[in-house]
Amino acid sequence: MCGIVGYIGKKEAYPILIKGLKRLEYRGYDSSGIVLLSDDLFVYKSKGKIKNLEEVVKNKNQKGSVGIGHTRWATHGAPTDLNAHPHFSESQNIVLVHNGIIENYLTLRQELIYKGHTFLSETDTEILPHLIEEIQKNTKINLFDAVRLSLQQVVGAYAIAVMSKDSPDEIIVARKGSPLVIGVGKGETYIASDASPIIEYTKDVIYLKDEEVARITSNGQIKIKTIGNIEKTPFIDKLEMNLEAIEKGGFESFMLKEIFEQPRSVADSMRGRLNVKDVSVKLGGIEAFEKKTSKASRIIIVACGTSWHSGLIGKYLFEDLAQIQVQVEYASEFRYGNPVLGKDDFVIAISQSGETADTLAAVDLAKKKGATVLGICNVVGSSLSRVTDAGCYTHAGPEIGVASTKTFTAQVTVLVIMAIRLGILKNTIDQKKLKNIIIDLSSIPEKIEEILELDQKIKDIAKIYKNSKNALYLGRGYSFPVALEGALKLKEISYIHAEGYPAAEMKHGPIALIDENMPVIALALHGEQFDKILNNIQEVKARSGKVVVITDNAQKIPKNLYDHLIEIPQVIGPVSPLLSVIPLQLLSYHIARFRGCNVDQPRNLAKSVTVE
After folding, report:
1. Residues 189-214: pLDDT tens digits?
2. pLDDT tens digits, residue range 227-255?
3. Is 2 one of the annotated active-site residues of the chain?
4. Residue ranges of domains in the chain, CATH in brackets
5. Catalytic residue (choose from 2, 304, 377, 392)
6. Which among 22, 225, 489, 607 is annotated as catalytic?
């Protein structure tokens, strides 16, 4: 959510900043801005897309080898030129960009107004440069220490980058609850919210930790302290991603590319963890906790959005394969409740970015209550990977499209392996079922390839339903969370209202909506509940509903029960979500494209929700 990019060195900063902001567009934004330092501070801002900012900057001063840029996703104040970042101090000597939310900004703002400060925007961010300047004025300390002391007064989340006309050879950065990475070059330094703007220039990075402040100078020196004035030694990590991973690679969008990357991302997420020959699995990241996990009284899964749907599949998996009680909680609700947790409880936190604010807050609460916390995330070095007791990476690679696709299937893959391992430890899976699950799981990448070959057929179906106002997704058992995920994808990228329901619940309300204009997407997979889902489909057809069936059992579905049928390969129930979700992703994608929607950057959405 929002994006920061910065550069200090010997090169011209403007081209680096603009390219970096474009690399961060996927995070979601509604305005952007940059500041360049040459003989003065030059600030350019615009609402809307970065191309609008480029128009503002055209024919203006673009000189300077020090600069910071920002994409804003509006929280406090509408998306306007005035509210766009960067923001100045009272004297306009200090300028700053900020991701996050300052919760006590009203109190600080009133104090600063009392001291003679005037504010121009509606944002919470603007109090920060004013506060830093006020502290400098009263104490005569340097910019680094003034930033550090100002943050001691701030309640909330932040990633900030600060420049000053009086300190032209440095940028000060700090973070708490919002990600910030420093790219280390030869005599130059890059700053960004994530690695995507940096990877082109360096693979050496420093992941700033919570409540750390860094002073970055024009000769490449980096000094880090906590806001409490404890000096820290910078630790340099190596980036694993490459530039090709964040390019479209010939696809018309990042989302389509990422849908088609799923055979590889699923394979990468099981590589080294799945042994078909020995009928075994292992997860090195949580090995040390296996014995304790096998004795856990229950598991609580916390997540948001698509990750919550992955977690709901996890509930079915753990209860089915490991016979352990599981609760799935929205992290945003869990963090404000008073959950009953103890030392025998395990919490699994799931987040694509590892920076989701509500999920991190839920983890903090769980740890305070004595629970053991495991994490599942996709980003090495993320906050979630640092604050959990142990965890697993999904190895999906960078996901640029805002609507999650390949990270969903990667998360489910890891959850399947987790549940298998726990079932083995607890001796709750018989050998025949264990072997079938592992064999079918190993075949998933090639079976996804088969489904992707149906892309044109699914596109043809999408064209028929592109003008729908509503849609209903139905599933039972393992397919119910997939129905929820399919509905979410359609809502996110096409702006069509859609709901996912357990098929049997349709009679308790949603059936009232069904008519000849209502498409119903039904997941009818083989197994114990197959006949029951057919009954539910019959109820839809009896009311003139349009039915699209996703099935692995086509020969047993009468042709009069559907308008369109998409057949997928048959696998055992616990791994079926990895296949059944693929047609739903493609269906949503093509409907959105037919409607002229920006599938990579849906309106009002952000990739990483790092604020409440």
Report:
1. 999 988 888 888 999 999 998 999 99
2. 999 999 988 988 876 666 667 778 899 89
3. yes
4. 3-245 (3.60.20.10), 249-451 (3.40.50.10490), 454-598 (3.40.50.10490)
5. 2
6. 607
